[in-house]
Amino acid sequence: MAAPQELYAAIRDEASSVLIGNEDIVERLTISLLTDGHVLLEGIPGVAKTTIANLFARALGLDFQRIQMTPDLLPADVTGTNVYRENIGEFQLQRGPVFGNVIVADEINRATPKTQSALLEAMQERQVTIEGKTLSLPEPFLVIATQNPIEMDGTFGLPEAQRDRFQFKLTVDLPDRDEEAAILDRFTKDPSLTSTSIDSVIESGDVEEAKATVTEVHIAQPVRSYLLDIIEATRENEYVEHGASPRAGITTLRAAQAHASIDGREYVVPDDIKQLAADALSHRLVLSTNAELSNVTPREIIEEVLDSVAAPDADEVLDTLEAPEVEA
């Protein structure tokens, strides 16, 4: 199993033995895994944010580490430190929980900015520096941070530089009535059901092969131009102080490749960009005071941008598959 489409289907089906709904969250997590991205999950307590991350890691058979972010947490508690071993009379490196494949930073906005920044190097460079020594992190490496939008006392909002490291910001919503009824039925029949109840369904090496497949997905020039138009429109919007960054364009384009591959295509279409834009761009916008006074949200701005930017015709995209593009 090396095809991204098969990999996602296997993860989704295995996770669904515990999880009800939230298939779009699992899809976005798979996209981030295949494109070296990271995910910020936002939702009220009890909507299964941590459970989703745990299920995802277990279905992949990856090392899962959870860090409970609190105001008294220190950077060394995340990255690790050198510890003196009296029995041997020397210091030894004690690696922190960041040395895992899937890292869940639970309630990340409860940690101080100093501790939050300990994740910056790890997320961007896939390495950490401990007392002057740089250490590589394992592959694959995915950070899933959670935050609660309704309890703001004693929290520290993520700065723009930190938010820009996340490929997606996803909202885990409350289930509808039918889904909640199914949840009640499932956990009434099997009260012991937890995220540990599922098995690994991915073979060793499948993730790296699937990642290689994603990089080969064709991106036509009209699609690239369409994304650039969207990025530019976020910077020119009247409610935005600072629009999407170049990093936002890169990660969104890579995500579109993975989205296309999961959908069984070897080429990106404008709809891949459209479906991902709100999750990939909204958290990166710095809104103006006018936006706050007008109660305009980042997602509303992205929706307005998508409505105002014309997408290329499907025929224009498909024509590039028949005639390879010539580099200038």
UniProtKB/TrEMBL annotation:
<feature type="domain" description="AAA+ ATPase">
    <location>
        <begin position="35"/>
        <end position="176"/>
    </location>
</feature>
<dbReference type="Pfam" id="PF07726">
    <property type="entry name" value="AAA_3"/>
</dbReference>
<dbReference type="InterPro" id="IPR050764">
    <property type="entry name" value="CbbQ/NirQ/NorQ/GpvN"/>
</dbReference>
<keyword id="KW-0547">Nucleotide-binding</keyword>
<dbReference type="InterPro" id="IPR003593">
    <property type="entry name" value="AAA+_ATPase"/>
</dbReference>
<dbReference type="InterPro" id="IPR011703">
    <property type="entry name" value="ATPase_AAA-3"/>
</dbReference>
<dbReference type="Pfam" id="PF17863">
    <property type="entry name" value="AAA_lid_2"/>
</dbReference>
<dbReference type="InterPro" id="IPR041628">
    <property type="entry name" value="ChlI/MoxR_AAA_lid"/>
</dbReference>
<dbReference type="GO" id="GO:0016887">
    <property type="term" value="F:ATP hydrolysis activity"/>
</dbReference>
<keyword id="KW-0067">ATP-binding</keyword>
<dbReference type="GO" id="GO:0005524">
    <property type="term" value="F:ATP binding"/>
</dbReference>
<protein>
    <submittedName>
        <fullName>Methanol dehydrogenase regulatory protein</fullName>
    </submittedName>
</protein>
<dbReference type="InterPro" id="IPR027417">
    <property type="entry name" value="P-loop_NTPase"/>
</dbReference>
